[in-house]
Amino acid sequence: RVLAHDVERFAVLINYRWTQEPPDPLWLKRQALERLSRAERADDRKVEAATEAILAERRAMWRRLSELTGVSLAELQSERQAIQNRVERMVAAVEERRGAVHAAAKAAEPEIPADASAWERAWNTVVTTLTTSPERADLDPLTLPEQDANHRLLDGLSLEVAAEIESHPEMFSGLSTERTSRRRYPEQTIAAHVVGVRRPIADEELAARQARFEGDDPLDYRPGDRQGQTGVEAHYERLLRGRRGLRRVVRNGRGEIVASEVVRHPQPGRDLVLTLNLELQRRMEQALDETLGPSATTVEEAPVIRDDASAGAALVALDVRTGAVLAAVSAPRFDLEVLAEPDADSWRQIVEDPRRPLFDRATRMAVAPGSTFKALTAIALLESGLDPDATIFCRGYLDTPNRYRCYTYRHYGYGHGDTNLSDALARSCNVYFFSAAREVGPEPLVEWAGRFGFGRPTGIDLPGEEAGTLPAPPRERIRLAAANVDGSLRDPDSGRGATGLHWYPGDTLGLAIGQSRLTTTPLQVARLMAAIGGDGRLVTPHVVRGFAQPQTADSSEQSWPVREAAPIAGLSAETLRRVREGLERVVADPRGTGYKQVRLKEVAIAGKTGTAEVGPGRRDHAWFAGYVPADRPKVAFAVVLEHGGSGGSDAGPLARRLVQELLALGIIEAARE
Length: 673
Description:
The chain is α+β, with helices and mostly antiparallel strands and 673 residues long. The chain contains 25 helices and 21 strands.
């Protein structure tokens, strides 16, 4: 299925003098004289008749162009006026600068003292005459190249219209055509954040490239060229763009071509093939739309966010073995067709939407992961020597009833009782992880979080990925920076992962349950689940599967080299088995936090709910992350509702919907009887 492609189209160009109104007198007279013989040019009546014929030809040309293109004369007049206004502004600006320079030069001329002798006056006159160009009462008339150049009048015309204009130059005087292309996005809003958009290259960017490459830009950008701005369009710009050809033409004094050679052959851009399952992407975007309400692409005015509504949502689904992205949903979304060439109203509607539809939440929304992070904490605890079968008594709070409590105690007033590791994961017992983390300290948590890639980008082939923040005590921060485990740390006292010089006991407790100053993206959490479900290998997520060279004899798809999943150092198979057991019970155990909202009889699901607190006045972030099938993992995923409420009751149903669609599309198979 095509997500982005170029459509050939044609533009009509017009010579400025043919659109200028009223016509420039000198140009009009010159055109009339060119149509007369030497003898006829002396006859004023014939010159006047030729002038009238040119004016009539102009009027007839505009009528023919209107009939041919279906553009009304009023619209053509508006386009003509816009061209003329633009050129006249340029002329006025140059005239103003030239006048200022002329006035400054006059002011700089030396003055002759009033009491100077006749000899001194004569000498100054001689010097001025010899060293100064002849003074003119008025500056010469100004002519800019734009006044004799061709300007784009109409765009997006068919081949038939262009052929008619080119084949009848006598009927369309002053007009020419130009072949261009327009990027089209047939699926419009589907995978908009992944696909990205092409926009005209900014003047500043073009000037910077010309200065950087000293006029030999390897991508040969020119004014008006389009450049990938977001998504795959931006990340793979070098491959998608190609390069225009170059021909050297030699002409004689009469403008005739005497020699021609190809200096550089054109290089077409490559076709990229994505890893997305388009139907899965479409269905899950619809599911998130239903959860959030009307998107920014379907309302006339920016929506008002209700206090009980989620501001946005994201969903990521990965192939457990390869890291291939099957779906990457960010909601609300936008229409690529609108963004490629937006009008003022459409652009204002998008940028003023308080839900920020342009923001890619799947790769850039870094928020606290809440209890989904307990899967990582469990790994750190087990690798630190924790006995998974030993129990900790949960009375609902750690030390005092008003701090460090379990969700059940805060809402229902009871604790979990005797709890082992598997129970703690299944029932999301905060007190268990508080107690265990207090015993082992923060270093193992930070160490293992770094090994699983938290605090640094995953390396997905999309621009602008957020690294998140992995807080660490000072000693650990210094060690991580030296070992380069955390790519976001550059020195002991600065960097994204740095959290200040002080570390308090509460920081360790908060980190153990995915709070404190920890922030992660949905993509990072999905990769955590892929590592747990994929035998402890850390994949590199990617959205491009392969490429093909278009317009060649061999257009078959070629696979893209994918970074091989790396085993996580020191992670034992027994640790993974114990953590998987707890994650499967989250959904399968009647006391599990995902039992009611996520469980399906067709397939076993492993995962973890998460309800991340964000402070007073705002709803919590709702998470559910896991993998499926639980006994033979194939797809890992993460779902998050920004300020969406509870992980189990709000994010859980979306996770269940995702698994149902995976089954319906045959991506995973139902459990055997």
